Amino acid sequence: MAPPDLDIIAVGPADDAVLIKHYLAIWDSYGTPPDDYAPDAAHAVGRFIEDSRAEGSHRGFLAVMDGDVAGSATACLLLSPYPDVIKPGVKSRGYIWSVYTEPFYRGRGIGKALTARAITHLKGIGRTHVVLQASDAGAPMYEKLGVHTGR
Fold first, then answer.
1. Could you count the other beta carbons within 10 Å of the beta carbon of residue 123?
2. CATH number at residue 105
3. Does 42 map to a domain?
4. What dihedral do alpha carbons 140, 142, 146, 147 form, nearest 10°?
5. Is 148 helix (H, G, I), strand (E, B) or coil?
6. 3-state SS assignment for residue 6
């Protein structure tokens, strides 16, 4: 259960820097060596956000506790890498591509609250399925929320 003093807020372009920082922090947490990042990694994430926002499905969320940003999540339409032959109302996938909780705030249900809010957004824009590529540690929590984790 999320802490009672936690607010999950939908954000726009003014908060893209936080979403970018958190997305790259996820890759850092996987042990990605600094030399492995593309020189324009932050810019590439920003472009992805801008493109999915222009397409109409992007939504970023911040978790705020005691006035501090405790985490973030981002969600958008999942574009199929193959021809989609099923009607959108039958199967239309949304994708949660970044859920991050600042280290100080971990273990308090923030990731779960962010994920639940992202799912609500995706279902609200007509997505029938929600997909997320989860780490082994995070997969059980996402699966309990009904997210397909690719495992």
1. 14
2. 3.40.630.30
3. yes
4. -120
5. strand
6. strand
**Cα(151)–Cα(149) distance, rounded to whole angstroms?**
6
Rounded Cα distance between 35 and 70, Å, is 28
Query: pLDDT tens, 53-105?
Result: 998 889 999 999 999 999 999 999 887 778 889 887 788 889 999 999 999 99
> Does residue 131 sit within a domain?
yes
Q: What is the pLDDT of residues 7-51, one digit of tens each?
A: 999 999 999 999 999 999 999 999 999 999 999 999 999 999 999
In a domain, 34, yes or no: yes
- Give the C-alpha separation, 20 to 43, whole Å: 9
Number of compact structural domains in the chain: 1
Domain of 101, in residue numbers? 6-144
Token pair of 144 as six digits: 């309990």
Q: Which residue has the tokens 């990042």?
A: 37
Q: Which regions of the chain does DSSP assign to beta strands (E)? A: 6-11, 59-65, 68-77, 93-101, 129-131
User: Looking at the domain assignment, is residue 1 inside a domain?
Assistant: no
